[in-house]
């Protein structure tokens, strides 16, 4: 069950005494966010608005929406990072209280020996030490990569993997705590190492390489398709932490020097539905969020930043290389 | 063909000499907006970003997106209003050069006599006088309602109909210039009078009452369905000109006094896809844009402001009345 750190929220409200507040969190925990909003109104008698727009990460906290709404405090829930606030937004933890005890034992028995690094996402960060202890008790040498920037020790985002990639030469494999194939595939692709999902709900250990390899092949195919395009659209993201205008303009310049035509676009949510409205563009490069390109289906090639770097290499007749073997896909 | 007033855009850029600009316009004219962006870059050598997010009207001009993007001038194209600017956004005309000469004659022959008011949307405003002349030459008494607020003489928005409603007692019917059943149905519902679409592309005159009546029945059914709901969600819109927080909070208070439970939400685009993520809510009231409720399909009742006013009457045991017979659906 997801447990939101309501005490943190209540302390902030007690201190700052706002007239109203806003909250948002990813779709998977929206029911809990709604309950927290109800609890706030009961306790403090102020309106608590749940912003039900997408919030994909700490790059997408809807602070500008909160500003439009004019609430006194804005809480972004469920994206635990190494900082308590981003701008005027208060970052609030939402931890899953499910136990990894059983699946950690199962994993140790499966691996038998070797050195592993444990990584996880925001919801299971508090479990990481306990899993390390279980693994070590069963003879598995276990390490946790150091955090960097917004990332805590052992934490990975969908696009950023420093605590994994920094240990690439020191470990045999990675163990991802949670259910997210999405995050685990990112670890596998950024490190090139075997990566196992320790799923506490299914009490199952699954290797993610095959799924990750499918994503990689799809991403590579898009690069080669895009190489044949004549007209490119470069899409800059309009979410607070996804604006990479300079990167977008740099790609424009480089593609034009290689004989391509380029138009510039901006979008809040980069979806196939929005892109199909755009005319006479053979391929897109979006510099907002790498996962948009790697995880979604589009009617045309839509490259992320590392894929676009790969494309430039292909267009220059260079080797494509391991374009996803990076600690940060931006 | 849609003709964007590029000279207006070029004059603004020549005067203000921005480092970059942004443009946006409704989906129907996006191809032309792209061409204008290309022309700007060719003429001035600066990046021109097409913001490809939705822009439903002068209530939704994406100024906050332009601010995020940091462009020197933001142009909203195709929503002609009585003002040249809204905030820092320059409003640019986009006129359709199709002729109404033939369909106006056809309409005069069909009507034979009587008094009509001519109304239209942004794209055909420049044709209105010519159609009046043709109709009068054929013996049809023709008037144009005075503009009000952002509306020019004879202009209607999807939600605002003053140039139509102000003539309600003086005319037999309304003629809408263009292809938009959406706007024409608004005129029919807000006035209760026969309304004809003069479609210059199909060279066809069509009465819109049946379609409008279907929309009204669907809207009324939603009110009665919502009356049975226990838990309400009130959704405030996050687009610049759609924020009606006070109206939303007023509905909350009134529904609670009638024994309903109410949660507050905020959304940028109010779609079924976003609302189905919200838990334990039986019916929604959205105070952003009335057309969202009247024109779209939702899995649950989603009432607009005039429908919510109707709901309050129903819950108080009063007569529902003609809740859409209003000059402005907000």
Descriptive overview:
2 copies of one chain form a homodimer. The first copy, chain A, is an alpha/beta fold and 330 residues long. The first copy, chain A, contains 12 helices and 16 strands. In chain A, the strands form 4 sheets. In chain A, strands 3-2-4-6-5 form a 5-stranded mixed β-sheet, sandwiched between helices. Chain A has a 5-stranded mixed β-sheet with strand order 9-8-10-11-12, sandwiched between helices. Chain A has a 4-stranded parallel β-sheet with strand order 14-13-15-16. In chain A, helix 5 links the parallel strand 8 and strand 9. In chain A, helix 4 packs across helix 5, helix 7 packs across helix 8 and helix 8 packs across helix 12. Chain A is flat and about 60 Å long. The interface between A and B is large, with 39 and 39 residues. Strand 14 of chain A pairs parallel with strand 3 of chain B.
SS content category of chain A: alpha/beta
Calculate Rg of chain A over CA atoms: 21 Å
User: What is the N-to-C order of secondary-structure elements of chain A (H for helix, E for strand)?
Assistant: EHEHEHEEEEHEHEHEHEEHEHEHEHEH
Total of DSSP H or I helical runs spanning 4+ residues of chain A:
12
Strand content of chain A: 15-25%
Q: For this entry, what is the oligomeric state of its chains?
A: homodimer
Mean pLDDT of chain A, to the nearest integer, reads 96
Q: Overall 3D geometry of chain A? A: flat
Model regions low in confidence, pLDDT < 50 over at least 5 residues of chain A? none
Q: How many extended strands of chain A?
A: 16
